[in-house]
Structures are given as structure tokens and as C-alpha cells.
Design goal:
CATH topology: Beta-galactosidase, Chain A, domain 5
Number of domains: 1
CATH architecture: Distorted Sandwich
Distance between the termini: 26 Å
Structural class: mainly beta
Helix content: under 10%
Number of helices: 2
């Protein structure tokens, strides 16, 4: 009988986790049920026959970090990615306040799904992969201030020897149209400082922001990358000391319809391709992280831009009508010349 991938229950301190492992030891992933959060993704690299695993993500290391959410490491971003200006927005003529009891420090970012309880709803294993379906019904009116909508979330992870695939599915189970967008906030590493790595971002446009990282209004926010060469990675080049916390728009899809942002280690040839179908790519070089600054880079597939809830031009794309589902698919593929 052919051996299959294995899914086992475990814990990170008091937090329940799921451990996925390949039968030949070539891949391993750890997920926390809190937020459907990826804690670790490891694959075999190096010369043929090498049994060691290489960590490709810089996730939460213990329960304290997971609960604190500092850096939003591999956070699932829903029902909005990145920031909502001043924690307030207007939808369908109604004003909403996501921070009703806060008069100062009105920063809110990355939604609340990243801390929501999920459960394992389904799982399947085969000789070449494992699939896990995590589900949350926590987004309900009255549960989260300023978001009086009912949305069910499903996150499907597929783990194989070289690829991690994720699909986020949302269904509006309420009676009114909800504003909704999803994203993912992973930090990737190739086992060396990011300054030494090369980056390729296939996009035509950069979104310009103010000092609070909120996009400027109207077409003033959209800058052709020809006009900002320091942020232009359309041709692969070394990151060096580049400081980036910015969103790239007008992504350029490949022949299969998916866009691939590529992180490469010239010293080893190891390469990560972060792929997505549609949306935007937000890049953060980790300069303000509480630990291990610039040890990894956040390459974030997102459905919508920062502060989309306050942008009338995004209303149609955000609208999730009652009874309607929506999905956003993305993932990462690792290659190494010696495997």
C-alpha cells in the first residue's frame, strides 16, 4: 500500500494546531486553528537524498506571539486587508465605527479573521498531497464593532512536496450586502537576510500613500513604476537596503492567468514563487518588526487596496450580496536547482 500524507493534532502552548507531513519527509506544515494561521512551512532542499527540511516562512514561534499578533505573521486578512482610515467607513449610506470606544490611536488593520476561531471541517490525504478545510462562523452582527454583517469563512489549504495552495471562500449568510475583501500576510525566508535576495514583482503601477500608509485620493494615488525606479522590480534585482511597505497594482498575469512574485537566492538558486489569481501585491520588508527585522519579507496577496472600504470606486468589487459566495486563491511554490 502506498503511504499517504499524514495530518495530526498538536498544540502550541494552549492553542490547538494541525501538523501536515509528507510520507517521505519531504514537506511539513503547521497550522493553528486560531485564525487558520500558517505557523510553519518546510520543504526538503539541497542535494538529492538530503533529508533535512528548510523553513520557508517566518511565523509565530509560540503561543504568546500568536495571541499578541505582532507583525500579523501569516495572518488571514478578512473582511478587509490592511488599514481602514481612522477605523471608520460608510457603507450603503450608513456610517460605521470599527473602534467605537477609542478616541486616540485609531489604527485598525488586517480585519479580525486572523484571531477568529476556526475548526477542521474536512480533510483528505493522498500519496502526493494533503487537503484541509477550515471553517469559521464567527463573523456575525454584534460580534465585531462596526461590522454588522454575517459572513461564513472557509480556508482550504493544500500541501504538497513543493507547493502550498490556499483558497479563501466567503459566503454572505446575512440579509444585507456586506463589504468584504480577503488577503494573506505571510513572511517568507530563504535562510539569509533579505538584503542578499533578488525580487521580481510583475506589476505596472505603485499605489502612493500618505504618512499613515493610506492611499491618496483618486488617480493621484496611482504612479506608473517608470516614475519611481527605486520601487520598480519588474526586472529581478537585489533588494539591498530598499525599505518597502507598499502596494503594487495592475499585476501582470502569466499564461495560466496567475501572477507570480518571485523571491530568489542567487547564492543557492533557491526560489519562491508567490502566486495569486487577481488582486494586488503588498510588499513589506519588515523594518519595523519587533523581532528579526529584515530577516524575512512579507509578500501579501490581497483582493483590495488599503482603505478600500472608504473608496467609492471599490464599492462594486467589495460588495458581497446575500447568499453569494466569493473566493480568492493564492499560494507559494518552492524550487531548488539541486532537487
Amino acid at each position: 500500500m502506498t503511504a499517504e500524507y499524514r495530518i495530526a493534532e498538536d498544540r502550541l502552548g494552549g492553542e490547538p494546531t494541525l501538523v501536515v507531513s509528507a510520507p517521505d519527509g519531504s514537506a511539513r506544515a503547521v497550522l493553528a486553528l486560531r485564525g487558520a494561521t500558517l505557523l510553519s512551512w518546510q520543504v526538503r532542499s539541497g542535494t538529492a537524498g538530503h533529508t533535512g527540511l528548510t523553513e520557508l516562512t517566518d511565523g509565530y514561534r509560540d503561543e504568546k506571539e500568536l495571541l499578541a499578533q505582532d507583525g500579523v505573521r501569516a495572518g488571514l486578512l478578512a473582511p478587509f486587508p490592511n488599514r481602514v482610515a481612522d477605523g471608520r467607513y460608510t457603507w450603503d449610506g450608513q456610517d460605521h465605527d470599527l473602534l467605537p470606544d477609542r478616541h486616540t490611536d485609531r489604527l485598525i488593520y488586517h480585519g479580525f479573521a486572523r484571531q477568529a476561531p476556526f475548526e477542521l471541517a474536512d480533510a483528505a490525504t493522498a500519496a502526493d498531497s494533503a487537503r484541509l478545510l477550515l471553517r469559521s462562523t464567527s463573523i456575525r452582527p454584534g460580534r465585531y464593532p462596526g461590522y454588522p454583517f454575517a459572513v461564513d469563512l472557509e480556508v482550504e489549504y493544500t500541501v504538497s512536496s513543493r507547493e502550498l495552495s490556499i483558497e479563501v471562500r466567503a459566503t454572505n449568510v446575512g440579509d444585507t450586502t456586506a463589504p468584504y475583501a480577503a488577503g494573506w500576510h505571510p513572511y517568507f525566508t530563504l535562510s539569509r537576510p533579505i538584503d542578499d535576495l533578488t525580487l521580481h514583482i510583475p506589476a505596472h503601477t505603485l499605489i502612493q500613500t500618505d504618512a499613515s500608509l493610506i492611499p491618496l485620493r483618486g488617480e493621484d494615488s496611482l504612479i506608473p513604476l517608470d516614475r519611481c525606479p527605486g520601487m520598480d522590480f519588474r526586472s529581478p534585482r537585489q533588494l539591498g537596503d530598499a525599505v518597502i511597505d507598499a502596494c503594487y497594482a495592475d499585476l501582470i498575469p502569466g499564461p495560466t492567468g496567475r501572477t507570480e512574485t518571485v523571491l530568489n537566492d542567487p547564492a543557492t538558486g533557491g526560489e519562491l514563487r508567490i502566486w495569486q489569481y487577481g488582486g494586488y501585491m503588498h510588499v513589506f520588508t519588515g523594518d519595523t518588526l519587533a523581532r528579526d527585522r529584515r530577516a524575512s519579507i512579507a509578500l501579501e496577496p490581497v483582493e483590495a487596496t488599503t482603505d478600500a472600504f472608504n473608496r467609492p470606486e471599490h464599492a462594486a468589487a467589495l460588495s458581497l450580496e446575500p447568499g453569494r459566495p466569493r473566493h480568492f486563491r493564492f499560494g507559494a511554490t518552492y524550487t531548488h536547482p539541486e532537487t
